[in-house]
FBX21 protein
Amino acid sequence: MPHINAAAALQISMLLFALPAQYFISQWYGTDSAERIQITERLIIASWSISTRSYLSLDAWADGLKLWLSKTRTCLYVELLILHFRNWYYGENKTKSGANEAKLHSYLAESARVHSPKPEYIKFCVGQVIIHRRFGYSGVIVGWDVKANTPEEQLQSRYPPVKQDLKDTPHYRILINKANGFGKSTAYVSEEEITVIMGLEVVYHPDMETYFSGYDGSKYIMQPWLKKLYPHD
């Protein structure tokens, strides 16, 4: 529909006022009745022409409708952008929250829950350097579980019937020393598969600085975030 602003409203008012004004003026200042009629007819025709071009024209209304729709689409587009952003923001936060919740119950000694109290039967601690009894690689402990915490199907394939009791023994997550060329970067092993070695400070692994800040001569020093998870190690 046409956009009626202050100027357009003033124009309409003047046109509406012009007709009776012209009529009364012509009554007083016209030379005769025939001339007054002609003047009035011209005024009516001029007013009608302007009105049809501006407010009674289908093209004018179509143009006005297009303008209104374009503004409406712009508003809708902005609203959709805002809605999309809110959905993205809150959806992302919800995903992060869900991921954090899942992290609390994750497998392979990666749980974000605090491991306290520490059972006395857990022989080793985070930061100690170990060697695998069977495969011979060295590495450093970065986490432990009181028993195997891994999907059941993996436990079944990993431990044959004769070794099913190992599922209920402590398990440790290991960053494997890349200098050994073992081919794997991490391992999850039972307590009986590893032994602690002393004096081996250098363990090469890209995640060492994430977990540890240094070496105290007997084991690696945990970063503050890791110490919070394993306060008794």
